[in-house]
Write a structure and sequence with these properties.
Two copies of one chain form a homodimer.
Chain A lengths: L1 E7 L12 H11 L3 E8 L3 H14 L2 E5 L10 H9 L3 E3 L1 H13 L13 E3 L3 E3 L8 E6 L2 E6 L3 H17 L6 E10 L3 H12 L6 E7 L2 E10 L2 H19 L3 E3 L5 H11 L4 E5 L5 H7 L8 E7 L2 H8 L3 H7 L4 H15 L3 E7 L13 E8 L2 E8 L4 H22 L1
Parallel strand pairs in A: 1-2, 1-3, 3-8, 13-14, 13-15
Antiparallel strand pairs in A: 4-5, 6-7, 7-8, 9-11, 9-12, 10-11, 15-16, 16-17
Chain lengths: 411, 411
């Protein structure tokens, strides 16, 4: 079953405002098995809004409008919906009296314009609002339902939860929904998709969503079935081959980010870690320490942005820097060994690279080396990333965290 | 002149995702005098999307679509727009070759599905994408223009700024718009508003917007007049009293962030800086080095997350840590002095604090100390921040950068 959501108000079309009501409504609708097929924000324009309502009602059985129920002339939702459904607006003495009482309670006189809020669409059920002046409305029209809800989130949330969800339960078929959530590192989105598409494309249910950002990929499989047992069985059926294909590139099954998963592994193994960063300038340390309790395993690190600092803080040999350059496998290994030696950590990660935008040395922009040192010695891996400075730096920290994660899980 | 914006992708209809591209696009459109009349998010549904495009093109002269240009079968924007405008999709050998080169640069083989990204709508101008694989498209249709832009914000922003705005300038009637853009540190949003509201509330034009995030406040005054001279005069009239009230709390008049402004001051003064970070774990170094060319003044730093590291890396005295604790004025000063001594930098900044969520020592969560050392010695200032771990850490780095900025500008 599908729904559409419309937020009403020209103020929602400024560069600063985001329609957060639709996020709340989407979460609540998804919980009862309703998908949001589209959402929009429409300014204070009666005809434009009426057109949008008319088309949405023809497409989906559930339409929710938020905002535009205030007392001013800009508040056009009531009129637009009445126009779209070709119904009258009726003045409700009952609502007007309730509004008068509300104002009296606050020892204020009700302004004449507030009487607009007592206009009800012919045939609509009124949804009382105990947190504000604008009552909501629930209108049924040839198999579809249109909800008019107030814009302020605390009013909308309470009204939707207490008055709309119980009514929706009578309309929406009961469904059990289960989600499988995987996070993957060390692959591009297109490589991953090519690998697993042959599996998930065979199924409409569960629905698969793939999200990629900053070298991190999230895979959501959402199964909707008549019973929880069926949904779980379906997820197992589709999830198993996907998990087999991705193997240990899957780092998280609970939604936790890579730095938290790696932190958990370090803690479990009573291991500690330190870092030595050049082009990322502290970003790797920042990610480790963004996790509460990271002091259990993160000791500290060195931001060695210049060659002199690499020599002094980490003991990298000047002749090595001279021979191989700062952006090299040899320097990455020496940095990791130096950080481990100076902090006494179980593991040390190092990063050196060319983040751009202008190349500083011989290496092309986007070249990075990540070093890893432990009791057995050091190794370094290199990659060539595309994109701007921030992207290259973020991808490199992701690569470093994943390198250590795999080292620990494969040990 | 009006525009509509459509974000494409079922993943944008989940409870977690917000279409931020439309905010950037709205800001840029408003600057050239174009208002956004409506915006929407539509899932991966070719017919639904084609219908929306058809109707939008009939309503407004500018339609911008973001997302859905990726290589997978879910990426339907190209096909939907072609369908809506009743045009063919043509395979471009040129784009395919450019994609192949891009993959070769990254030493990867292009997946077969990426060839979908070389499909161009008949008659469209191709907008090259130097930050990702998906090229954009610019299609003109009976007085309207339709732009197809990639979803990732850093790709969309660059493409819109460099390739769409110059083309739009030929279509949109000229209105002189001038913006005064101030960035302020070291104040809360409500304190700032109380101070300057009596000035800006008197004017509808220029329009004033105040945005606060992460301890940083941006003030935008936008004047729209018939001529540039009129707009400049109006901005001067309203801007002068605001600038006088804020004084040196204004750190930027060109939009540059604090780390870039401070970097410029350091470079001008032939000065260098190093950092010593505890609770921020590298975030201050990361901010310094996010600025291209920061190797001119940023030497490096120490992430001393444990007491042992503070002692070994920075020479903080164990008895001082014992007596005052790690989160103290004395420790902050000793950390800054240690970083300066060990790197030989002109200035050193240090951060120690309790970022939470659970208090680690005696200091309550949110207590932070920032130390500053230079040739004259060291000082430390403290603050108590509210909020979660990430907020406390971000505010603290902002405070540290601003402390050094004021030291240099007042010297």
């Amino acid at each position: 079953m599908n729904a559409e959501i419309i937020a009403v108000g020209s103020e929602m079309l400024t560069p600063e405002r985001v329609d957060t009501n639709s996020l709340y409504l989407t979460a609540e609708l998804n919980k009862i098995g309703v998908e949001v097929a589209a959402k929009s924000v429409i300014g204070d324009d009666r005809e434009r809004l009426a057109e949008a309502v008319r088309r949405a009602v023809a497409r989906v059985p559930i339409l929710i409008l938020s905002g535009g129920l205030g007392p001013t002339e800009d508040d056009l939702t009531r009129e637009a919906v009445a126009l779209a459904l070709d119904r009258k607006l009726l003045f409700s003495e009952e609502i007007a009296a309730a509004l008068e009482r509300r104002f009296a309670q606050a020892r204020r006189k009700m302004a004449e314009i507030n009487r607009r809020q007592a206009l009800v669409i012919e045939g609509a059920a009124v949804l009382p609002n105990d947190r504000g002046t604008a009552p909501g409305q629930w209108v049924e029209e040839s198999g579809a339902v249109v909800m008019l809800l107030p814009g302020p989130p605390h009013e909308l949330n309470a009204m939707f939860e207490r008055q709309c969800l119980p009514r929706l339960a009578r309309i929406v078929p009961r469904l059990a929904i289960r989600t499988l959530f995987l996070r993957v590192a060390g692959m591009s989105e297109s490589d991953l998709d090519q690998l697993i598409a042959p599996v998930y494309k065979k199924y409409e249910n569960p629905a698969t969503t793939i999200l990629a950002a900053n070298g991190d990929i999230q895979i959501h499989l959402r199964a909707r079935c008549a019973t929880p047992a069926e949904a779980d069985a379906l997820l197992a059926e589709v999830g198993a081959p996907i998990e087999a294909l991705l193997g240990d590139r899957i780092y998280s099954r609970n939604g936790d980010p890579l730095e938290a998963i790696l932190g958990g592994l370090l803690r479990q193994n009573h291991a500690t870690v330190s870092v030595a960063e050049s082009c990322t300038g502290g970003m790797l340390g920042e990610r480790f320490t963004s996790v509460p309790g990271s002091s259990d395993y993160f000791l500290g690190g060195f931001i060695t942005y210049t060659n002199a600092m690499k020599i002094e803080m980490l003991g990298v040999l000047p002749e090595m820097l001279e021979q191989f350059g700062a952006v090299s496998k040899e320097t990455a290994e020496a940095m990791a060994l130096g950080a481990r030696r100076r902090t006494g950590s179980t593991y040390a990660l190092s990063i050196t690279g060319e983040a751009g935008p202008d190349p500083g040395g011989k290496a092309p922009v986007g070249t990075v080396y990540v070093g890893l040192a432990d009791a057995a010695g050091a190794l370094a891996v290199d990659r060539q990333f595309l994109g701007d400075r921030q992207r290259i730096r973020t991808f490199t920290t992701q690569m470093a965290l994943d390198l250590l994660r795999r080292r620990i899980t494969r040990a």
